[in-house]
Automatic annotation (TrEMBL):
The keyword Transferase applies. This is Probable RNA 2'-phosphotransferase. It comes from the Bacteria. The lineage of its organism: Bacteria, Bacillati, Actinomycetota, Actinomycetes, Kitasatosporales. Its EC number is 2.7.1.-.
Amino acid sequence: MDDQRAVSVSKFLSRHLRHQPELIGLTLDAQGWVPIDDLLRATARQGFALTRGELEHVVAANDKQRFAVDGDRIRASQGHSVPVELGLPPAEPPAYLYHGTVGRALARIRAEGLRPMDRHHVHLSPDRGTATRVGARRGRPVVLSVDAGAMNRAGHVFHVSANGVWLTDAVPPAFLRLRD
């Protein structure tokens, strides 16, 4: 599978496993899982035929490990805008986590903190490099440092997804620092 096809498949899967499963006739269970065979039939009905081998390649090769497979089921690891309960237990975060954004968002973030927007959680990275890559998707990246240890001590709950993305409901401005 060439890189262009892998990106196309990954974007298709992200859209339908995180945001709009109904557009291709899928119904996610309460934890976001869908049978792989149902997914493959749905992609074919949409004219986006996908083989099981291609699916397995995209799941295994995705640099962010956006998808999880459990037996004959698949789901997005996080980032849903549709109602799902991923069942991730609370986890103690490292002292600092990072969030990649762009300069045009800083005024709002400084005033309101980080909010999940149309997702269930705020996504945080365990390292500056990952946060930089996340921010770069929308322009020149700005990396914010999150005092996750202090947030945790203050009672904020964190979860970590299978692919290492840290999740929390929101990050108040007091716990954010601009990293250059």
